[in-house]
Amino acid sequence: MEVPSLGSASQAAIEGLKRAQEKTQVAAQNIAEGSLNPEDVVSLSLAAADFKANVAVLKSEDEMTKSLLDIVA
User: Has residue 38 been placed in a domain?
Assistant: First the structure.
């Protein structure tokens, strides 16, 4: 039985984390430059939710992998 190193869920979650990081950096830079645009604050909140969701995907996949290994072992 062959187990891939990174499943598609992990790859998607990692890409999601990267996009959330980019959103955070852009919004933080805008705020640091004195922008009073409320969209920047909203963008930070959405990026935080994105981080949480993607981390939950990674944790779930890790738990499923552990369960599968316990069954196989």
Answer: yes
pTM of the predicted model as reported, rounded to 2 decimal places: 0.78
Give the tens place of pLDDT for each residue, 35-70.
Answer: 889 999 999 999 999 999 999 999 999 999 899 888
Q: Which amino acid is at 10?
A: S
How many Å apart are CA 66 and CA 3, to the nearest integer?
Answer: 12
Residue 18 forms part of a structural domain: yes
* Distance (Å, whole) CA 60 – CA 14: 13
* Residue range(s) defining the domain that contains residue 28: 8-72
Domains contained in the chain, number: 1
CA angle 6, 11, 16 (to 5 degrees): 150
Please, where are the H alpha helices in the chain?
8-32, 38-72
